[in-house]
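User: Can you predict the 3D structure for this chain?
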Amino acid sequence: MRRLGWKAKGGLAALGLTILLGAVIGTYFWQMRMQRPYEVNMGGAHSMEAGAEHVYGSALTAAHNVAGRSCEALIEGAGEEPLREFRLTASQTVKELDDGRTENVWAFNGLTPGPEIRVSQGDRIRVMLVNEDITEGVTLHWHGIELPCSQDGVAGVTQDVVNPGEQFTYEFIAGSPGTYWYHSHQASSEQVKKGLLGPFIVEPKEDAFDYNREETLLVQELNGSYLLNGSTKELTIDAAPGEAIRLRLIHAANETETVSVYGAPYRIIAMDGHDLNEPGELDHHQFRMGAGQRYDLLLQMPQQGKVTLVSGSGLKMSLGSGSEPDTPAGLALFTWTDYGAPVQSPPMTDLPVDRSQTLTLGRNVFINTINGKSFHEIPPVIVKEGDRVKITLTNEGGGDHPFHLHGHTFQVLSRNGKPLSGSPVVLDTLLTQQDETYEIYVIADNPGLWMMHCHNLMHASMGMSMMFNYEGVTTPYRVGTKSGNLPDL
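Assistant: Here is the predicted structure, written as structure tokens:
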């Protein structure tokens, strides 16, 4: 057999490298086409580049053509609710970090995180968004809030992007108490990282738990730096011995956080703004929070010494004064599938189901996928108002995928085939990890066009984003480079 000379071997190597490089470049431009389509109608029948269409059922198309309720016409009717008005101005600015560095950021009212919006359950909220100089445009999405479709703040789905010099007014009723947050949903993977986000708290008419006071703690990743309430350093909060304190934790960064609590036992009293039933005391435990999730903790200060919270990204918060608490190794990992107590209701296996859907979360080379497809190529889940929908979510890989549904909450039925045995768990963002399968239950009671996506916003920008659409609801807006509306870039 004739051996190849070094020149031939070199030629083959160069050919292989060329093919590999071509595949990488091709995949990159295919991904960019996913991220930056020319024009897409997210309202059921997804219009592709050059006017091509993917239509999912002739009956659905007919319903859109005949029924024709527009998302922009779905608003909160006039009422006599107390009115709370706010103004948020998005602009470029410079933030001086407390470690001596300065960062060019995008901010609301000159702040990142933006100002806390705190209202009472039942208030009518009116927020004027003004874009001073963000060239790409901005919107406001109210993460976890159930509101009319027209107010959801998704560029190209519920509104056009708000360009420099423009403004848009959002109005809705804060119906459900809890811990929420807001952020831009235009080029969200970039704009949240640059600083366009803030906390949103809805205080209940009657609180199910007793405490002396509360603190809001927001974790963000700002241009690569992790901050807690805008600080890179340890956050210190005064607290008196014996004081009962509620901590509202908002995880607004992309990667999963592991939080450890030292110095006092605590209870997790709410997840994603929804109270847990009879939550038990946790001691020597840590817990995981996925991107977009919120956990509310309740603890009582010890008679002596501090209580500290420490995150896996290196953030730290101290309550009280005195000696540092012990930090034992080997903390148990909190699991919420058997936490708290069940309530009197039909067994979850007996809940009526009108529609079932299976969604598999994964990765294909550089693309994050749902059922093997990405972004506007993923057929939407189509529902009718009143449908009871069971969705099976399986994470096949590509990292943690905190799955977020706009405009709705859902009850978690099972994990890996085992029904929940503790408190009912109602979420809007569910952390899924590799090889996990969850069943969730959604009541389709809020007509509109709603995004479902991974809230690791980089994964969403790489394709892990789809729609949960109601029959007969349309939108005049379009996603793509033609309009400039790019919600999950």
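The first helix runs from residue 6 to 35. The two ends are 54 Å apart (CA to CA).
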